[in-house]
Amino acid sequence: MAPSSSSTKKAARLAQKGKGKKVRFQGGTLFPLIVAIVMVLGLGTIVYARQSMPAADSSPPTENDHWHAAYGFLLCDGDYQQLAGNLEETNAAGQLISDRFLRTGIHSHDDGVMHWHPYTSRAVGKNAKLGVFLETYGVELDNDSLRFPDDQLGGEEYIEGETKCGTEDAELQVVVWDSYTDTDDGTTYIANFDNIPIRNDGMVFAIAFVPRDTDVQMPPWAADLPALGAADSNQVRPEDLTSTTVPGASVPDGTVPDGTVTDGTVTGDTTATGDTSTGDTTATTTATAATTTVAAVTATSTP
């Protein structure tokens, strides 16, 4: 059946009304304004975040600092003891005797002193911790045990709950003084020992395995710390060793003068000068087109 003329006229009128009309965005300009504000705030947040990012750790100790800290091991009721060996010592050919020194440059001189003269990032700023020093001598210290390597203090181990001091149970603790001149009781740590920070020059560390309530005092040589530190005037640096055979040692960071370090190998055509441990004599060795292979070395705190 054909549509009536009235229906046709209604459809025509509706079509005519729709002509020329435009769809308007509901809300006017408010939504675009909100989008623009969000974009500006987002960009500002990104810029702020970039500018406020922390820089590389440049806090002390740096590679230019020469700090010294007294340390000692108090084991049961005996006298304070020290680790043996001058890691900086060289032989007559100017070669390092120790295979651990090059990793950080941290060492001792058979004097009960941590000589903190870092030359790699492993021992500067927030990386300067008691564990760095202990690692260079192969000493293992965790929350409930203290173990010495065979070449230190007879390779003994002290374990809470197993090792006794006479007939008494004993516990591990590390007592720290910020200065060798302090007269207080220091700060006592009972866990997380490896992460105890080296905060400043002149600190004192007493690593003790003693019966509970033992009064732990500074090692007796702590009072001589200025004189002991002053005796260490000739720091061996990596550039002193570019053509020197270093048995079992590691040069982990980058390049040293006159020699390139690649995968633990130092290659160079240089003359190296190495100071003896006393600093009184100098031994010189020359390497011609030589390749010296060095192997890698391996080495929290709430008061």
List keywords for this structure.
three-stranded antiparallel beta sheet; 15 strands; disordered C terminus; alpha+beta
SSE pattern, N- to C-terminal: HHEEHEEEEEEEEHEEEEE
What's the helical proportion of residues?
Answer: 10-25%
- What is the domain total for the residues? 2
- Biggest sheet strand order reads 2-1-10-8-9
Parts with pLDDT < 50 across at least 5 consecutive residues = 242-303
The oligomeric state is single chain
Mean pLDDT: 73
Distance between the terminal alpha carbons, to the nearest Å? Answer: 99 Å
Taken as a percent bin, the fraction of beta residues is 15-25%
Query: What class, by secondary structure content?
Result: alpha+beta
Rg (C-alpha, Å): 34 Å
Strand tally:
15
Number of helices: 4
Could you give a short account of the major beta sheet? 5 strands, mixed
What best-fitting shape do the alpha-carbon axes yield?
A: elongated
